[in-house]
# Entry
Amino acid sequence: MSTIQDRVLLDRAWQLPVAKRYAPLLSQSATSICGPTSVANVLRSMGVPSGKNPFRRFGLRAMSLDQIVSEGSEVVPAGWSVNAFRPKTLDELRPHLRQSNDARYRYVTNFSRAPLFGRGGGHHSPLAGYLEEEDLAFVLDVNAGFGPWLVPAARFFDAMNTSDGRGGPTRGLACFEQLTPQ
# Structure
């Protein structure tokens, strides 16, 4: 198993500046609603009330990273933007991991479960922080069966550096950035 659910480390991760804003975490209620539920959690972490599907379109569908960015940009509060980031190297990923602890940023990660769990397909979940000293990303899996977990940055990169099966670019991060103070 390449993910970590050590109670002491998870307790530390929940104390990170942005992670604290995610409690209580919404879990997806059906398969293929992980993208909308992840964005709903991001909105709630910003103080915006949201149900499990904040999008204007039907939520029960597989979504690409680009769809999360496009539809997420339609529902974020004024002063926030949403962009896709597809790191080509682990060194390109680490600055975003560090930023995930900054309250001006929120992230939804799009990754393949296979490199992490040995099976499974694509999934979306919030990235709630980074334990830099341990080099561990804190992922708030919206699938209640997995729950929150930590993963070494290199394994996290491997899980994002995969095709979404649609012949397009790799998976990656949807970066929600606060451009103006609220």
